[in-house]
Design a protein that fits this description.
Strand order of the largest sheet: 3-2-1-4-5
Helix content: 25-40%
Number of helices: 4
Largest sheet: 5 strands, mixed
Radius of gyration: 24 Å
Strand content: 15-25%
């Protein structure tokens, strides 16, 4: 471990560094700035372990998403209806910032957060254009067991 050499910076150098940093910050703000979205889609995936909600524009490009695990619920508490309502409430704040007021809701899965998330969305004051269930349905199912030979 050697001694560090301390160099005095001139005012001009400090001003240039500050300008570089402010330019980088402006670029980041421009990248992260989402345009205003009036209509969009909300995809709710309710599994037995978690509830994941994604908000997209009308073309399907994701604007933001959240889940019960991302909010801070752990273990079996992620699959509760209360966690699903908290996910919706967290996303409603973000939706109001970008101006989203008319939505179509797509629900997938049979978890306990399914009904709770729908109730939270209906009670939020958003204009709901439609609710659609996109849960996949198996058409043949698993192969049955062979009969036991004695």
């Amino acid at each position: 471990m050697g001694k560090t050499r301390v160099m005095a910076q001139k005012k001009e150098e400090v001003i240039k560094e500050i300008e570089k940093i402010s330019e980088k910050i402006q670029k980041i703000q421009i990248k992260g700035a989402k345009k205003k979205i009036n209509t969009g889609r909300i995809y709710v995936q309710a599994t037995f372990n978690n509830t994941i909600v994604t908000v997209t524009d009308e073309k399907g490009n994701p604007a933001f998403q959240s889940s019960a695990g991302a909010i801070g619920f752990k273990g079996p508490k992620k699959a509760t209806p209360y966690a699903a309502t908290q996910v919706i409430n967290a996303l409603l704040d973000k939706m109001k910032k970008i101006g989203l007021h008319e939505v179509e809701i797509y629900v997938k899965g049979v978890g306990p957060g399914r009904e709770a998330s729908l109730r939270a969305l209906v009670g939020s004051g958003l204009e709901i254009a439609g609710i659609r269930d996109i849960t996949p349905i198996p058409f043949n199912g698993p192969k049955p067991k062979k009969p036991r030979r004695v």
